[in-house]
Design brief:
single chain, Growth Hormone, Chain: A, 23 helices, 461 residues
Length: 461
């Protein structure tokens, strides 16, 4: 039976719209074919990596000022702005001329920058608006139920979007389905490539309509009026100053730095692998229509990972968990580098599991060692550092692919196999890179082990 209090909370218009916005904004149809979409539009592997570095950089640069901006123009307006930006970024891809360079690269570059801006704008603003709605009604204790419902509905939406997006992209499978349904219609490859983008554009329009229906809580209106009386530039400066101060505290607190370095190590390389996963699936012979089903299946792992993570945090030491995550990641990378047809899907399960566990453990450990007044900023600093690392490895990957392209072996490969050889060659460097990075972080932990065992200071001040 459903909880009556949960049902009543979900009837609140702002809460329903918050959940709907999260679903419409995040469940994007092109995610399961993300890498091959870029490559099929005519971009190179180097350009793909550079574009994702630009995406990460835009989030890093805009994350802090977007929070200060929310205090001055209002969270509702920031959520609306994020939906508008989403519509623009998707419209650019929908009209991008396939294979026509350099215009395709510049359109995708603008798309990535706008995508980062949309992520930064929506980040936390929608959640804070919904939470304050409950707080004004003295229902903030129901927030956990709201999040649980939102995550459940969003998981369902992800499974649908992932499965349908990959099917729409695969013209051959799509046409087979149409013939099976006795529909006299033939979808061209170029049209099929745009279908996931068009569907995501429609979600963006839905997100905008949903955002326009949000109402500002009374408490937010009062806070915004107070913020407007101050200097908005000064507010942004204070936000940056607070982040820098917290960063200095983290750098001078070995246990906090070690926790972030451990998560940083797993996160940046695993995210790069997950960004490239659709090209990897193609290289091990999986049909494109299956990519969405695979992504949806991995998404279900998120239902079990937190429980395993909690058990590890409560029953195993930080050292044990560090080696466990390192082993899972390295084993996954080594297995992927073999490019085993079909069965090559198994090693990537290890990478998915490692990044999921790392996210839980880092959050649990960092909250444990950080004082309450610095907690939010410390987590924000962690997010900024993760995105910087992701951007950095994207640049390194692009340089690696560029150097591989210059080698005689690649230059003499048949043109249609060049990107395939480049991808396989670049991925073969990942296990070694990770092993070196793992040892470096471990060395820091060993050198600072006495300080790590000491309780950190309670404040960043």
């Amino acid at each position: 039976m459903s909880d009556p209090s949960n049902t009543s909370v979900l009837k609140i218009p702002n809460i329903r719209r918050f959940i709907a916005f999260r679903i419409l904004f995040n469940a994007r149809f092109y995610y399961p074919i993300f890498t091959i979409l870029f490559l099929d539009f005519g971009l190179t592997l180097e350009q793909f990596a550079i574009l994702n570095a630009a995406w990460a950089a835009s989030i890093v640069l805009l994350e802090v000022p977007s929070g200060a901006l929310a205090d001055t123009i209002g969270r509702r307006n920031l959520v609306i702005a994020s939906a508008v930006i989403m519509i623009i970024e998707m419209a650019l891809l929908c009209v991008a001329p396939i294979g026509e360079m350099p215009i395709v690269f510049y359109l995708f570059l603008v798309n990535r920058i706008l995508s980062g801006a949309a992520e930064a704008s929506a980040s936390g603003a929608d959640e804070a608006l919904a939470y304050d709605t409950l707080k004004d009604m003295n229902l903030e204790k129901s927030w956990g139920r709201v999040l649980e419902s939102q995550m459940r509905y969003q998981s369902i939406a992800f499974i649908i979007a992932m499965s349908l997006g990959a099917l729409l992209y695969d013209a051959d499978r799509l046409n087979q389905l149409l013939r099976f349904l006795s529909i006299d219609l033939e979808i061209a490859n170029e049209t099929a490539m745009r279908l996931p983008l068009i569907m995501t554009l429609l979600l963006g329009i839905g997100a905008l309509i949903t955002a326009l229906g949000l109402k500002e809580p009374e408490s937010e209106q009062a806070a915004r009026e107070q913020a407007r009386q101050g200097n908005s530039l000064e507010t942004i400066k204070k936000a940056f100053a607070r982040t820098i101060k917290t960063g200095k505290w983290i750098l001078s607190t070995p246990i906090a730095l070690m926790i972030i370095l451990g998560g940083f190590l797993i996160d940046h390389i695993a995210r790069m692998i997950l960004t490239l996963n659709s090209e990897y699936y193609r290289q091990i012979g999986l049909p494109e229509a299956s990519f969405g089903v695979i992504s949806a299946g991995f998404g279900l792992m998120g239902l079990f990972t937190p429980r395993i993570g909690r058990w590890l945090s409560e029953n195993k030491s930080k050292t044990f968990n560090y080696f466990l995550l390192g082993f899972l990641t390295l084993a996954g990378l080594v297995g992927m580098a073999q490019f085993i047809p079909y069965w090559g899907i198994a090693p990537i399960v290890l990478v998915y599991g490692a990044i999921g566990l790392a996210g839980f453990l880092v959050s649990a450990y960092l909250n444990e060692v950080t004082s309450s007044e610095a907690r939010a900023t410390a987590l924000s600093f962690k997010g900024l550092s993760y995105n910087l690392a992701y951007g950095g490895i994207g640049i390194l990957y692009s340089l690696l692919v560029y150097n591989l392209r210059q080698t005689e072996k690649i230059q003499t490969t048949l043109p249609e196999n060049v990107d395939s050889e480049l991808f396989k060659g670049a991925l073969s460097y990942f296990p070694g890179y990770f092993a070196v990075a793992f040892v470096l972080v471990l060395a820091y932990g060993l050198v600072k082990r006495n300080a790590i065992d000491t309780r950190p200071s309670e404040s960043v001040e």
